[in-house]
Amino acid sequence: MVYTTVHLIRHGEVYNPDRVLYGRLEGYPLSARGREMAERVASTLQEQGADIVDVTASPLLRAQQTATPIAEGFGLDLGTDERVIEAGNHFEGTSVAKDPTHLLRPARMVKLINPWKPSWGEPYVEVIERMTAAIRDARARAVGHEAVLVSHQLPIWTMRRHLEGRSMVHDPRKRNTTLASITSLTFDDGTLITVDYAEPCRDLLPDSSTAVLP
């Protein structure tokens, strides 16, 4: 038996005072609290004695900044994988959290009619395909050890629901993938045997008045 674990880590809090749905937009670095989250995740993995031999992140700045202290803490080079990038979203660039009426405009309402696809962005099936491939390759690079993939809320939560055999249709407000959370997939050879979840930054999470969008 060869056990390999791939940790799917969501990035830390982003500096986003206007609460823009930033999606794949350039920029949007971690906030001061987000940088603290990144350091906390790195120190948590070290304190747990994790056997990390590979650290890879989405190309987006917030993911790269979250992954950097992890890679540095384990003396590793940081890799980049486009396949773990944030999901595409038709509402990218809008401030829907501040003003939900953005969604009531006729041209935008049509994007909300099919939660199965979903019609408001990249199809779940495509997210699952690219995340599955990235996880498979990370597992191959870290056979018998542990790997880290720093990604984003929707890709991680969609992948978890898929692995647990649950429907992809869900309320985005109820995703159990908080900022800087760790979703750990452990494999026996190529067979998934456990899915674990941890929130090392629970005490640092913003409250509802300061919450940021994924």
UniProtKB/TrEMBL annotation:
InterPro entries named in the record: His_Pase_superF_clade-1 (IPR013078), His_PPase_superfam (IPR029033), PGM_Phosphatase (IPR050275)
Gene Ontology cellular component list: cytoplasm
A GO molecular function held by the record: phosphatase activity
Name this polypeptide is given: Histidine phosphatase family protein
Source lineage: Bacteria, Bacillati, Actinomycetota, Actinomycetes, Micrococcales
